Amino acid sequence: MPTPLPSTSISEVSDSKTIALQMEKVSVYYGSNLAVKDVYLEIPEHEIVAFIGPSGCGKSTILRCFNRMNDLIPSARVDGRILFDGEEITGKRVDPVELRRRVGMVFQKPNPFPKSIYDNITFGARINGYQGNYDELVERSLRGAALWDEVKDKLQESGLGLSGGQQQRLCIARAIAIEPEVILMDEPCSALDPISTIKVEELMHELKERYTIVIVTHNMQQASRVSDRTAFFNAVATDQGGKMGYLVEYNHTQDIFSNPKEEYTRDYVSGRFG
Amino acid sequence: MTDNVTGDIAPGSWSPKRDRAKAIQTIVKIIFGSFAAISILTTIGILATLIFETIEFFKEVPISQFLTDTRWTPLFASKQFGIFVLVSATMMISVISIMVALPLGLLSAICLSEYATPRIRRILKPMLEILAGVPTVVYGYFALLTVTPFLQIFLPDLQGFNALSAGLVLGIMITPMVASLSEDALYAVPRSLKDGAYALGATKRETVTSVVLPAALSGIVSSLILATSRAVGETMIVTLAAGANPTLGFNPFVPVMTMTAFIVQITKGDAPYGTIEYKTLYAVGMTLFIMTFALNIFSFWFVRRFREKYD
Ligand SMILES: Nc1ncnc2c1ncn2[C@@H]1O[C@H](COP(=O)(O)OP(=O)(O)O)[C@@H](O)[C@H]1O
Ligand SMILES: [Mg+2]
Predict the structure, then answer these.
(1) Over 70: is that where the pLDDT of B157 sits?
(2) Which of A176, A190, B166, B266 sits at 20 to 30 Å (Cα–Cα) from B134?
């Protein structure tokens, strides 16, 4: 069994950027199963960081640590330190509800609420007690998600009536409507057609100006197209017959793809496994 | 080349018994088909009898009289056939029962599907199922001998037979139905929708009230309508606890007579075949049938119209 390499050197951001999110020795268990072990990771502000790796290696699990969505899975347990803007976000003292307003999320399958487009956007603002003008908020968010022109005449129609790509951009609009600092995206394009995928990718480049983005993708071209840094995860078989994920290598995307330090990374990005 | 491949197989090694399989298939189809036909034929038979006898009834009693009389006295010498006397009692008791079953059933459903830990669920669910399994005659005596005397402590005007107790207990009886059907509706709301709400910083309560309940609304409403139609058709509780005194109006403190209670009264005595009393039975039965049928159709339509499709 190859030993996971929690060597801190490859997980650190060498250039002097402000760190938005940070993980120190984070392990996640589902019940007694160790799903991901000892992840060290630093994610700088206003960058796009991609998580790649074979399926089941814990990319989504690690992503969900940043907005504590794992709290909603009864069997899940997270060990280690996770920092957001230098403050610890694990433990009982931090309210996950408040955290999730600052760390938004877009899911693999578009999941607009069965409400009007307008209400989809204002939902988060309402529950978070937004005081400003809601019409402006809706327009701003939809423009931010490059969806305004397509839906401006049917804001009162159901969000479920949109195409898959439009639904996903609606979910992005919904996420940016509560003005988060970070947007987590879990394979946001895997249910979309190629044209919608391109649209979402272009959108990410614009969003980067204002938000820090962490994206899980199974598509290596996508990772190399959109991201500034890439984290490669892998999984090893455990003695109990399960799989345990770990972070193999984390670096500038360019380096991961053209000059990987690890054998596994080289094999994976060259398509030899996974 | 391909010819060669098939040619290589010895002809004797495959002999599917296609003919026999087909014969069995046909027989099975006929058996299942006839079972399905039995239930359809029964329904048609019941409907045909109802319609036939109802037509006979309206040959003797004009429909205008049926709809406008203010008294219901088909067994007296001076006969009056104001169906709304019975309908008003049925409606009042059904409304009371829904006012009980809606909050109780919906809250139990929300509790079971969203809040209960597995342990609480293990206790609550069987309790609801026990409620659903209690014979209606037990509910009827419970209403008459326990609920009414208890209510009379606070409501001295309440008579021994009354619509209030019957409605309240009927509400308890249909609560499990509302709870179980609503829980199915809540359970069917996709996990991804709840996650979407949580990810926007919603609390559990906000997620339930603003996302889960609206998304399950069509199922909840249809569970209520089905429960109403169950309440409209319920017989034993109202016969035992609400009395047998046809009274027009919506006073829950006095004895009333529902449509089902009237049917019981007629069938207990012997109304000779072909008499007007006998035909009245069918006219009332037909009214009851139309009411529950309309409710069921409405529920069906409502679900089709308002159900959200998630794929
Ligand atoms: N809700 C869950 N309950 C139990 N095990 C889970 C759950 N979610 C994920 N896992 C397990 O954790 C491991 C990592 O899963 P995941 O984070 O979804 O991987 P990825 O996103 O890289 O495909 C897998 O072995 C998976 O079976
Ligand atoms: Mg995943």
Answers:
(1) yes
(2) B266
